[in-house]
Amino acid sequence: MELESFLSELRERIGSQSVFSEGIELQEAAHNTLALDRKIVAVIRPADTPGVVLAVQAANAHGVPLYPISRGRNIGYGSKAPVVDGCAVLDLSGMNAIREYDPVLGSVVVEPGVSQRQLHAFLTEHSAPYIMDATGAGLDASILGNTLEGGFGHTPYGNHREHFCDAEVVLGDGTLLETGRFPGLGPDLKGLFVQSNFGVVTAVRIDLMPRPAHYESFIVRVDADAGLEKLTERLRMLRQEGVVASCVHMANATRYLVSSRPCPPEFAHTVITSPDARRLMSTKLLKVGLWNAAGGLYGLPGSVAAAKRHMRKMFNGLGEVRFFSNKRLGLLMEATARLGNLGLQIGRDLNQSLVSFQHIHELMQGVPTDEPYRNIRWRVSEHGDLGLIWFSPALDATGDAARLAVDLARPLFRKQGFEMPLTLTLVTPNRIVGIFNIAFDQRDEAQCKRAQELYFTLKERFAAQGIEPYRSAILGMEDLEYNGAEKKDVVLARLKNALDPNGIIAPGRYAIKG
After folding, report:
1. Do domains 214-375 and 383-479 have the same CATH topology?
2. Within 10 A of 355 (CB to CB), how many other CB atoms are there?
3. What is d(CA 80, CA 391) in angstroms, rounded to the nearest whole number?
4. 241: left (phi > 0), else alpha (psi -120 to 50), else beta?
5. What region holds the FAD-binding PCMH-type domain (predicted)?
């Protein structure tokens, strides 16, 4: 590695203001919630695609590996930190142009630095007849970054792998590629750049969802843990039938608690179970189940009304289903706020629960929020102390698969002394992504060790059942194994050699090596 020559060339070609080899920039790039130490040799911040081309060319010439990030908000999976030591972080957050907006066909072309906050504000300012799909990653999360991690959100456009095209990519050898729109002539190449390290994506076209004539959110409450299987099966049928088109998130009571408020003082030194969480979250008039599902209904008023009737029949005898229009939720919040102002505790409790749900209700309308991020600290007072690792297995959308995931994980969380907040999301009608979060205090070395042990044990136990993660933290990422060695060791290795022959881009990412 000829680091000084690399830095000198880039200072000359893209400007010294874009090149950092020491100081706070390197510290911030290395910080992550996984309790991992990472050695970073530089931070490079190109202003545009030609600057990225120059950085990749210089990296090839001087043997310096680059680790591209969009805005670095990959919290719980690695933040800005590279998979391996010795990389220069290629920070694309300054490339934040919305290059194009098509008000007829409903799409935008965004650069890596475009945040959820920025795109939502842009659509509002233009009175667009479209909404974006929003994730719970926060206002400042990158649209492009989440897409390239294969992320998902809440609306019918929530499967982000499916709703982008037209990727502009600087390949590892410095070639500038445009994948184009599909259907089109030849293979659709965009998927090569999701969860890979073949190049640096500098722009993509994102589909926007037409603003629905009518929208209502729903919550399904199931009080018995044993109801998970039937809840999963019925939600899958509703997705397969097209009655529910949105992603549907099934969460245990612990997830609801962790996502909505800080850890109660009486549980400061005690692990909270789902029955504990249900008791803490429930009021006399608004109860939380051991399992709770949330999704959205979109369309003409008549079609939404028909979907509601069908859902009531589907869940009769299993759990309670409630529906909320914007008007109904607003009236309920006003009424409970008035009761709270009169000094009635039940009014305060109800209002707090409704406020917590309001953010979910709005996310399903494409309105991003920082609420999940504000509450993610859970047991620490400062974000800098937050330890967080996501474990995210991909499962068939069956009741048996959902139960297997719970039964595999629950004793492992209990053994290591952590709560088990869990969301099971039907991202497609037939596939579920489970999101387990391991939350800990980075100031406590013992907790850090237990959290990492739990993560690796979860990976091992699920892999033994043939279950792969839908997405991986950088913790141990360079050693990931795929179901079928030929995918990793033959196909992906050949692509890496062809598109990034010197192995310059993101070494270790998703274990793709030449």
Report:
1. yes
2. 14
3. 18
4. alpha
5. 36-211
Phi, psi of 138 (to 5 degrees): 110, 165
Amino acid identity of 95?
M
Question: What's residue 264's pLDDT?
Answer: 82
Does the pLDDT value for residue 345 go beyond 90?
Answer: no
Instruction: Give the residues across from 322 on adjacent strands.
Output: 219
- Measured CA to CA, the distance from residue 479 to residue 462 in angstroms comes to 16
Rounded CA separation 6/485 (Å):
36
State the Cα–Cα distance between residues 428 and 430, nearest whole angstrom. 5
Evaluate whether 347 touches 338 at the Cβ level (below 8 Å): yes
Q: Which CATH architecture has domain 98-210?
A: 2-Layer Sandwich (3.30)
Q: Any idea where the domains of the chain sit in the sequence?
A: 3-94+497-503, 98-210, 214-375, 383-479
Q: Please name the CATH architecture into which domain 214-375 falls.
A: 3-Layer(aba) Sandwich (3.40)
- CA gap 351, 27 in Å, rounded: 41
Fold of 383-479: Vanillyl-alcohol Oxidase; Chain A, domain 3 (3.40.462)
Please check whether residue 81 is in contact with residue 108, taking contact to mean a CB–CB distance below 8 angstroms.
no
Q: Which amino acid is at 382?
A: E
For residue 391, the cross-strand partners are 436
> What are the structure tokens assigned to 275, written together?
């029955």
DSSP strand pairing (66-69 vs 87-91)? parallel
- Residue 437's region, left for phi above 0, alpha for psi from -120 to 50, else beta, is beta
> Cα separation of 503 and 62, whole Å?
12
Q: What is the dihedral of CA 25, 119, 192, 166, to 10 degrees?
A: -130
Reported as a single tens digit per residue, the pLDDT across 44-87 is 999 999 999 999 999 999 999 999 999 999 999 999 999 999 99
3-state secondary structure of 441: strand
Place of tokens 């196909």: 491
CATH of domain 3-94+497-503: 3.30.43.10
| 340: pLDDT strictly greater than 90 | no
Q: Identify whether the C-beta of residue 372 lies closer than 8 Å to the C-beta of residue 259.
A: yes
Please list the residues that pair with 323 across neighbouring strands.
218
Q: Judge contact between 45 and 29, C-beta under 8 A.
A: no
Q: What share of the chain is helix, strand, coil (3-state, %, to 5)?
A: 40, 20, 35
Three-state secondary-structure class, residue 228: helix
- Edge-to-edge strand list for the sheet holding 66-69: 19-20, 40-44, 87-91, 66-69
